[in-house]
Specification:
The protein is α+β, with helices and mostly antiparallel strands and 142 residues long. The chain has three helices and eight strands; from the N terminus they run βααββββββαβ.
């Protein structure tokens, strides 16, 4: 079964941060805003397209005993039998190295001995239930 990534409205503001920063630096340096308007527009457009493409290519798929995680160029598969812990996560700041999720509310999956990944499936409870059906030894932590 295939699950899309959930999307936070906060992600709409991500391209604005560098645009505002570049605009502020241009203002402080005394440059004309017209001189930096084109690079700002290009930066905003590039980041918006990148986030949009990444979002539409992000999904999580459960096939038999394997969880496939796909985001843009990043693809990985995790044996569901090797998943040890699922932690609910609602924080914006994540300590995971791999974060193919577009919402701050998601789940952290710990597998093998120390590997972990943060994902944010749209139907989080249904997704966890499906994993538990396959591997009932998974520990759920809040």
């Amino acid at each position: 079964m295939k699950y899309k990534s959930d999307f936070s409205k906060f992600n709409f503001f991500i391209p604005l941060f560098p645009v505002v920063l570049v605009s502020f630096i241009a203002f402080l340096s005394g440059d004309s805003i017209k001189m930096v308007l084109a690079p700002i527009a290009i930066l905003f457009l590039f980041l918006s397209v990148l986030i949009t493409v990444a979002f539409f290519t992000t999904y999580y798929e459960i096939q038999e005993n394997v969880l496939f995680v796909s985001m843009f160029f990043y693809k990985t598969k995790i044996k569901i039998s090797e998943i040890r812990i699922i932690k609910y996560s609602n924080s914006i700041i994540k300590t995971n190295f791999y974060k193919p999720g577009f919402h701050h509310k998601g789940i952290e999956i710990v597998y093998h001995k120390y590997d972990d990944i943060f994902i944010s499936p749209e139907k989080r409870e249904q997704f966890i239930a499906k994993l538990l059906d396959i591997n009932p030894n998974i520990t759920i932590k809040n």
